[in-house]
């Protein structure tokens, strides 16, 4: 699978992932006192926006729930743990692997078991790019959207 960095949320994203603006004129709404604050990246993804990056995954592993063009939210400053899905630099490329600890040794396991497990020599933090916090999958693609049946 190939991973492409989409970028980080904007620096002022603490209050603005799903921002809506509203102007009023005339009589104020009685419901204004029940309005909720805007939903931000921290609320949605549970991470500071400065350490959160979005990446697009190319390739598919349907048996694992991964499809072409899925998006992952990756946290750069999260601490690695056994079983974590990580983005790590292998041979100069970023790749997606599961981090496993066996007998005091860290191993990288490919999702779906399509590649051999690789032992990590030295400090895992040196090669680790980030830990996958969320996997975002669209239920249908652009082709399906355009070819919908109208009733």
Question: Helix and strand layout, with pairings?
Answer:
Blueprint: E1 2-7, H1 41-45, E2 52-58, E3 70-75, E4 85-90, E5 93-102, E6 105-109, E7 118-119, H2 124-127, E8 128-136, H3 142-146
Antiparallel strand pairs: 1-2, 2-3, 3-8, 4-5, 4-8, 5-6, 6-7
What does it look like?
- Helices cover 9% and strands 34% of the residues.
- An 8-stranded antiparallel beta sheet has the order 1-2-3-8-4-5-6-7.
- The protein is mainly beta and 151 residues long.
- The chain contains 3 helices and 8 strands, in the order βαββββββαβα.
- It has a domain at 2-9 and 47-139: Umud Fragment, subunit A, CATH 2.10.109.
What key attributes describe this structure?
eight-stranded antiparallel β-sheet; LexA-like; LexA/Signal_pep-like_sf; single chain; Umud Fragment, subunit A; 8 strands; 9% helix; mainly beta; Peptidase_S24_S26A/B/C; 151 residues
> Helical amount among residues, as a percent range?
under 10%
Number of helices: 3
In round numbers, the mean pLDDT is 76
Secondary structural class: mainly beta
| Shape type | elongated
Label the CATH architecture of the domain at 2-9 and 47-139: Ribbon
Largest sheet: number of strands, sense, barrel closure: 8 strands, antiparallel
Strand adjacency order, main sheet: 1-2-3-8-4-5-6-7
CATH superfamily placement of the domain at 2-9 and 47-139: Umud Fragment, subunit A
Report the uncertain regions. 14-21
For the termini, the CA-CA separation is 38 Å
Oligomer: single chain
Number of strands: 8
Beta-strand percent range: 25-35%
What is the CATH class designation of the domain at 2-9 and 47-139?
Mainly Beta
> Would you tell me which CATH topology of the domain at 2-9 and 47-139 applies?
Umud Fragment, subunit A
Element-by-element helix/strand order: EHEEEEEEHEH
Rg, rounded, reads: 20 Å
InterPro entries: LexA-like, LexA/Signal_pep-like_sf, Peptidase_S24_S26A/B/C
Pfam family, one: Peptidase_S24
């Amino acid at each position: 699978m190939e991973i492409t960095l989409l970028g980080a949320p904007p620096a002022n994203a603490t209050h603005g992932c799903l921002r809506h603006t509203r102007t009023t004129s005339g009589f104020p709404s009685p419901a204004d006192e029940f309005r909720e604050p805007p939903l931000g990246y921290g609320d949605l993804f549970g991470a500071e926006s400065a350490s959160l990056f979005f990446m697009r995954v190319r390739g598919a592993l349907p048996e694992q729930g991964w499809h072409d063009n899925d998006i992952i939210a990756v946290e750069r400053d999260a601490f690695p743990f056994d079983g974590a899905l990580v983005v790590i630099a292998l041979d100069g490329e970023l790749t997606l692997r599961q981090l496993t600890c066996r007998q005091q040794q860290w191993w990288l396991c490919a999702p779906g078991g399509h590649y051999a497990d690789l032992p990590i020599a030295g400090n895992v933090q040196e090669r680790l790019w980030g830990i996958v916090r969320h996997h975002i999958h669209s239920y249908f693609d652009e082709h399906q959207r355009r070819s919908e049946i109208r009733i």
